[in-house]
Structures are given as structure tokens and as C-alpha cells.
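Revision sheet: C-alpha cells.
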Amino acid sequence: MDLDACASIILIIFWALNANANGLVFWMIIRAAADPPLLSRIRAEITPYIKANAFPPRENRKDYVSTMIAEDPKLSIDIEGLTTQCPLLKATYLECNRVHSRPVSFRKVINDLILVDPTPSISSSSPASSVSASHQLLASSYLHIPHFLHHTDPSYFPDPETFRPERFLTRTEKGEMKVDTKTLRPYGIGASMCKGRLFAEKEVLGFVAGFLMCWDIEALERKRRPDKVEEGERKEDGEKASLRVPRNVKTSAISRPNDNYRVKLTRRVIG
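Predicted:
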């Protein structure tokens, strides 16, 4: 393998590290914090799998000195428990992927073929008749498959514009809650499916669960340009903001928010 090929592989690793998990952590935290009932349910679900080992007061420690800086509690996170025993947390992860990710697959066409749309459309030349659209694909050409179109298709995901993690939850015959990923494809399909998807899931769920257990989030007053104001908001600068969910700005991976986002974090009492 030459140096250019090696550089390409290293670059895509760094791209994947920064383009997916980091953004997904942001969307999960904001989505949970902006929905207090959802946040309460997630915290109740993950509590058995997040343990905080709080340090004793500084003056009671044998190694105490007056200049000592207070230490944060140490978290013990049961990743296996979060990924297998917390269906609402995982359903929120899946719904954030559905709403905020822009996965794309590429495929090379081996043989000429014609795709026919099974849904007939009205003919412009003869309104009384219907026709089926067809698409010719030539050998050696490449297909660009944006999975976001499928993720927002109401025939697969009803009311796709609504953020609803419960769409991925079902009950077993014993009445236990479990996760059903349905036809969601945030990591592509087939042999080229992302090899790091399982690690990314554990990474995101562990970080988000630890963060939500340790911190409360509230919006700060903000100054925003008139073109950045959300629908229904007033345009006066300095208006105290409620915790809102930004709009998506499409990218090649996890969407980024359409505006800067300033919040106040308050440490929760845990342990």
C-alpha cells in the first residue's frame, strides 16, 4: 500500500471519529433535555447502571491540604447494562440517528438494468391514464443511495417529522419492553456497513448516560440574528430562551445544528 492510500485510510478514521459520535452525543443530550418527561424516564432507566463514587469532604481526607482542588465523583458505568437493559435510552439513540443522520451508501452497477417504480403516476399528456416511471442504470456506473429518504418515508416511519423514540419500542409476549430497529439503516447496508457501529453505539450511550446523570441543563439568554430565529419566536435580541432543538444542517454524516447553542450546566447531587 502506497503512502497516499495509507493517508486516505488514516484520514477517514479521523473523519469518522469526529463526524458521527460527537454530533450524535449532542443531539441525544439536547433531545432528552428539551423533553422533561423523556429525560425523567431515561434517568430512571439508567440509574441501576450508573454508579457515582463520591469522594469524602476534603477536610476529612488524610492527604488534605488547604490548596487542594475539589475532585469530581468517579463514575462506574455498566456499558453492557446500558446497551441491553435500557430500551428507552437505545430507542432515543435510534430516533436521533433517524432524524439527525445523513447516511449514504455507494454501489457499483455490474450489469445494465432498468428499475421500474411500482407506484403509477398520472401522465401529463393524458391525465386519464397512469404510467410507471422507469430508470435505466448502466454497467460500471455508481449508485448514490441516501438512506435519509427512507428514514423520512411515512410508509415506513409514520409521522416522520415528529421525534418519537417509542416508535422503536415493542413488548414481548411476557410484557417486557424491547427495541426493534425496524428498517433503520444509519450505518449503511451490506458488506460495506460501518465496522465500528457497535463500538460507536456503546461510546455514545455510555457518554450520554453519564452526562445526563451528572448534569442538569437549562438555556441561557441569547442574542441571535433575525435570520436565525425559529418559527414562532420573537425577534428581540436578548430574549430569554427556552431549551429548544435546533434545525438540522445537512452534512455527509450526523447533521450539525443551524446555530450556536449556549446552555447552563448545573451539577446534580448523585451518589
